């Protein structure tokens, strides 16, 4: 089988060096990458680096190898074009259809999905001109990944940082796997909870669970790749922030409830993938609980935590808001799932069996998505992103 053909456009931002890592991820995973830097990008990283790392020739202008007509051919043959970093200037040129170098020509001739990963100072990103250009590109079907918040060039911090190359790669991989960049969640705000809550007993101990957060992160990543504005409420996860996603960190079930309710106020869909503790210790010891010689420990008395899934399902923050829950079951999986779906009042419930290799901490899973309308959608064993995409397919259908 031919290797998927990826065009990596690099424009002239300080984050151009991070595109070397993105390029490496593509080549190491069997993609044929043609790097098309702008002239400005070559001020940051030279053509020799791009050529050596990609194993392909590198040109910035339409005047090299004219007999091969590269200004049309490169775009026509690509399976994916990703521009990382995308400067404010490049977004403006792409939005307005300029074609004054090889990369802008390629963007006009490409019929494949196009992903932009902008990076610039916060002022440039927030400028109405840039925002309008981004809106134009998204309206036309491009995926524009929201920049991350963090350290920018020099000592400034703010929104505008290039997301982690590994996360940009994941977005591209999903877009390639789906064969289209159809941003069917464009203009939608979705909330995803991930991880597992921890209920403290004392300053060093807690009651927790085994949820790694990987399924929730896959949901957040795939929703962003499909154009959604994503708020990820992450409970005790150690995973890198997915590209273009707002991450809110929480610890306990009570904190998770607060963060989910706040984010859900204007959300089109809420997917509760986090494992939220049903109970918490009734008392919190301000100092570490000590062993007492010759005495049995005091029993731990538990009280119920709020049922966030039932609450947001009963009191939808917006009409038509779609609510999705998760159920990890050990036996009678489907019957227990159906009962939970009815009890919680959500629209969809993803039911998976807990067991070896399955669910907690694994990269892959299998599940059945139950619908309140009686539907059953089995998702075979595979990457958590596949399950995530199935969930979003079902959510999109319900959003209408
Ligand atoms: C040191 C330095 C860093 C820059 N970083 C960025 C950046 O991160 N994002 C951006 O949009 N422009 C940045 N610029 C400005 C662009 O290089 C400039 O707009 C250039 O014309 C972009 O050309 P291109 O879009 O064809 O690559 C930077 C310029 C300099 C000198």
**Residues in helices, as a percent range:** 25-40%
Question: Gap between N and C termini, in Å?
Answer: 37 Å
Poorly predicted parts: none
The Rg value, from CA coordinates, equals 24 Å
As a percent range, the share of strand residues is: 15-25%
Number of domains: 2
User: In one word, what is the shape?
Assistant: elongated
CATH architecture of the largest domain: 3-Layer(aba) Sandwich
Q: Assign the CATH class of the largest domain.
A: Alpha Beta
Total beta strands: 19
- Cofactors, ions, other ligands: flavin mononucleotide
The H-level CATH homologous superfamily of the largest domain, spelled out, is CoaB-like
Main sheet, how many strands, which sense, barrel? 8 strands, mixed
Number of helical stretches of at least 4 residues: 13
Structural class: alpha/beta
